[in-house]
Specification:
With 89 residues, the chain is an alpha+beta fold. The chain has one domain: ACT domain (Alpha-Beta Plaits, 2-Layer Sandwich). The chain is built from three helices and four strands. The chain has a four-stranded antiparallel sheet with strand order 2-3-1-4, with helices on one face. The longest helix has 13 residues. The two termini are 26 Å apart.
């Protein structure tokens, strides 16, 4: 089965990746660092962060130019392996 048949996405494409974790001073930087390993050319405005209503958590959305399903899988693997990341979508 070809890659095209396995994924409804057409590459390259803009793809938002969201990671949620503690609202700490370094969480956003850590998420960006992990994603940048696989997407070194993140553009300006690619990162948006938002606090939870109670302020305890931080959601970081990084929009990447995805080039393959394997690249996205690698990013999600890195994020979910990180102790600080509670959830990655």
């Amino acid at each position: 089965m070809s890659d095209k048949a396995q994924s409804p996405l057409e590459f390259p494409c803009q793809f938002p990746i969201k990671a949620m974790g503690p609202n700490s001073t370094d969480f956003e930087a850590q998420v960006v660092s992990l994603v940048r390993k696989h997407c070194p050319d993140l553009g300006e405005g690619a990162v948006v962060s938002r606090n939870s209503s109670g302020g305890k958590y931080l959601a970081v959305t990084v929009t990447v130019c995805a080039t393959s399903r394997e690249q996205l899988d690698s990013i999600y693997y890195e994020l979910t392996a990180c102790e600080q990341v509670l959830m990655a979508l």
